[in-house]
Amino acid sequence: MRHPPPTIVLLVDRRHSRTAKTLRGSGYRLMMTFTPDHAVAICVNNRVDAVILDQEHFIQTEGWSVAQSLKMIRRSLCVILMVRGKLIDQTLPEGVDKVVPAHEDRELVEALKEILEA
Fold first, then answer.
1. Nearest to 65 by CA among 49, 81, 50, 76
2. pLDDT digits (tens, 9 = 90+) for 81-98
3. What's the CA gap between 89 and 39, in Å, rounded?
4. Using one digit for the tens of pLDDT, what is the confidence trace for 29-66?
5. Which of 3, 7, 48, 64 could cysteine-pair with 29, CB 3.0–4.6 Å?
6. Residue 67 in this model has a pLDDT that exceeds 80
């Protein structure tokens, strides 16, 4: 019996995302959203394997982040943060499993494979 492709939620700031095209081309089932609240709602109501957060949407408010909210839904949910520039602190933000550079789509796909197949 063949398993369905992993479902990825992509939280991005624009509708025509090169990252979305790459993920679809790599065989992932993709759900796109443009707000953190909608990303959380999608994860509550659907079987989701991973969430990719664009740094623009990684908002920390009072020590809490969208990544932590996602982990509250399902601890095993994979959360990847795409960052622009260098991450100053080498420790991962709370709730984030992996950090990849934005616009490095091949590195993102490799990170997904590594995490989802673990």
1. 81
2. 888 776 666 678 888 899
3. 26
4. 999 998 888 999 999 999 999 999 887 666 655 555 88
5. 7
6. yes
Q: Which residue has the tokens 């991962």?
A: 92
- Residue 82 pairs in a beta bridge with 54, 100
Domains with residue ranges and CATH for the chain: 7-116 (3.40.50.2300)
Look up tokens 């839904």; give the residue: 73
pLDDT band of 109, cuts 50, 70, 90: very high
List the structure tokens of 44. Answer: 């509550």
